[in-house]
Design brief:
- By secondary structure, this protein is α+β, with helices and mostly antiparallel strands.
- The radius of gyration is 24 Å and the shape is globular.
- Helix 11 packs across helix 12 (362-373).
- The chain has helices at residues 2-18, 83-86, 134-140, 145-160, 172-176, 197-201, 237-240, 249-253, 272-276, 316-322, 328-344, 362-373; strands spanning 37-53, 60-69, 76-80, 94-105, 108-112, 118-123, 164-165, 168-169, 192-193, 207-219, 254-258, 292-296, 299-304, 309-314, 382-388, 399-405.
- Helices cover 25% and strands 27% of the residues.
């Protein structure tokens, strides 16, 4: 803890050197600053890290999503892209986040860090029971008059919202309470039913497990081409649905591979090492031969509930279930038909019903389904069935998706 406090003090000095590039704003006004630099003084409810190690170059892509609040808006998303900043973010603390940029994805407004961003920890849980009193602690904070006034308001909101109790900051999940489940979990043979992701984490033996969770992110580890640090966001599918890179999403997510085990088998893998890792035999084929066709590339599906945030490995057959039983072949064929039609005609193709060849436009239907998956807070939790391999790391196939479904709700 002393090392962390020392690091936080170091960040205070760094912040003073960098300076401010924008105004200190209330969270309720964030939508008025899209594309601009801002400063945020906020309470951190929770943090959910997403990380993945890429063997080809030894690098690591790290993104941390945090949920913050102030007296004007209780919950607001912030994305931390710098690992050194993310390692200092702690739930239950009050931070001054400096030089963030406000962005909009679909209907969601968020703030994100850049290379010039920094943070300053203003209050820790122990400060609420400090012997010299909270007012003195706030007075000693090395911030300006405007920031100190804002800090007073945030602390007052925390106290009114009962985020502070008996000298400690309540855990975000305790404050929100446990979600009520109004369906009965079906008991399956050779499978354990986990009421939460925390319970799933405690599995000590390899087995099959079912649980309910919401979709948070689809992470596509791009290793077949060199991705610059500035292009790291290309690996996060939810961010690409509302940008121009949506057009290349099919090329990144769909490839040639085995339709049974989902292994890519084309020659566009990023290095000789990766090409040599293609299994000679298919473990899911009765004759051990790969069934080559158009497939979804393997990806990590990050899911969450009110206790945890975990990655699930998804290969071709499981991806089809996740995408409404639409195969990669159908999506890719419709995508190519649309592109060919756009080249031959001056008018744009609109609607979901028909593609250029007269068949249903599975590409557009697929995009709609992807958008629906990321409607956070608007969907009921999905029911997942996975295999648990305790010999593997979380980001390397510890959970492998078997099936996914949306539970039916009966009358309450």
């Amino acid at each position: 803890m002393e090392g962390l406090e020392g690091a936080l003090r170091g960040k205070k000095k760094m912040a003073a050197v960098i300076g401010w590039y924008g105004p200190l704003i209330d969270l309720c006004k964030a939508s008025s600053y899209i594309g601009d630099y801002v400063q945020l003084l906020v309470f951190v409810h929770k943090s959910t890290p997403i990380q993945y190690k890429i063997a080809r170059n030894g690098g690591e892509v790290v993104r941390m999503d945090i949920l913050v609040g102030d007296e004007t808006r209780s919950y607001f998303p912030v994305t931390i892209w710098q690992k050194q900043l993310g390692s200092l973010i702690l739930a239950g603390h009050v931070f001054l986040l400096q030089n963030l940029k406000v962005a909009k994805f679909g209907d969601t407004v968020e703030a994100r860090t850049l290379h010039c961003s920094s943070l300053q920890c203003l209050l820790q849980p122990k400060d609420f029971v400090a012997s010299k009193g909270l007012d003195e602690v706030i007075k000693d904070c090395q911030v300006g008059i405007t920031a100190r006034d804002k800090l007073q308001k945030v602390v007052g909101w925390m106290q009114r919202a009962r985020l502070v109790h008996c000298g400690s900051v309540l855990n975000y999940y305790e404050h929100r309470g446990q979600l009520k489940v109004n369906w009965k979990v079906h008991e399956e043979m050779h499978s354990q039913n986990c009421p939460s992701l925390s319970e799933l984490c405690r599995c000590e033996n390899s087995s099959k497990a079912t649980f309910h969770a919401s979709v948070g992110e689809i992470f596509l580890p791009i290793t077949w081409v060199n991705v610059q640090e500035t292009e790291a966001e290309r690996m996060f599918v939810s961010r690409r649905l509302h940008t121009s890179s949506q057009n290349s999403l099919v090329d990144d997510l769909i490839t040639t591979g085995c339709q049974l085990c989902g292994t890519p088998v084309n020659g566009t893998l990023g290095s000789n090492v990766e090409q040599n890792t293609i299994p000679l035999y298919c473990q899911r084929s009765s004759n051990r031969l790969h069934v080559v066709g158009t497939v979804y590339r393997p990806f990590l599906l990050y899911v969450w509930d009110d206790s945890k945030y975990l990655p699930i490995s998804v290969t071709n057959k499981a991806a089809e279930l996740l995408f409404g039983n639409i195969s990669a072949e159908k999506v890719y064929s419709a995508y190519k038909s649309r592109n060919a039609l756009k080249k031959n005609q001056s008018c744009e193709v609109h609607g979901l019903s028909k593609a250029g060849d007269g068949n249903p436009d599975f590409y557009m239907i697929w995009l709609v389904l992807l958008n629906v998956l990321f409607k956070h807070g608007q969907n009921s939790p999905f029911k997942f069935k996975v295999t648990v391999d305790t010999s593997k790391e979380w980001e390397n196939g510890r959970l492998d998706m078997i099936s996914v479904s949306l539970p039916a709700f009966g009358a309450v």
